[in-house]
Amino acid sequence: MSEYLELTKAVLEEHRTVLLAVKEEETEKLLEAIAAAKCIQVFGMGRMKCAVRAFVMRLMHMGLDAHVVYDTTCPNLGPGDLLIVNAACTTIGYTVMGFGKKLGAKVVAITANPNSKAAAMCHFTVSLRARVAKMFRRAGIEPLDLAGKKIRVRGWLDNYNGPMIVATHPEQIEILD
């Protein structure tokens, strides 16, 4: 089998695994919110903005009033509207979510961490279980076994429900003892 086919199968399997792990009630809640919304606005940054654009285009193809946040054609947000935020973002995403709530829109976070700051700021979440834990295990690191060990982490600090270090790749963790 060619390398292209192997990589394609790996990507499709990863997507299948992530999508099948989404709780059906979360999906139903999101679909109901989309159907009820006057206007749907979706926010993402970086690579996720490409996925956001594709998602918004599909919503528009279905006849829904959908926009990408910060595009020049994006209307004002208000009551009856839906703001969907890719919560793999930082301060800017939190700011967008805060404005969405303040303006009366229903705010939904798509997140890998249902206990994150972004999740606490929205009306509900749709959790996409990231492959992060699997990556750590493949690298020989069991995240739960790190408790009490001396480690060096190259990540960033977050201060939600107390300080925590965010590490998303095994290369960021060095076990010292």
From TrEMBL:
Signal peptide: none annotated. Gene3D superfamilies: Glucose-6-phosphate isomerase like protein, domain 1 (3.40.50.10490). The lineage of its organism: unclassified sequences, metagenomes, ecological metagenomes. This is SIS domain-containing protein. GO terms for biological process: carbohydrate derivative metabolic process. InterPro entries: PHI/rmpB, SIS_dom_sf. GO terms for molecular function: carbohydrate derivative binding; isomerase activity. SUPFAM superfamilies: SIS domain.
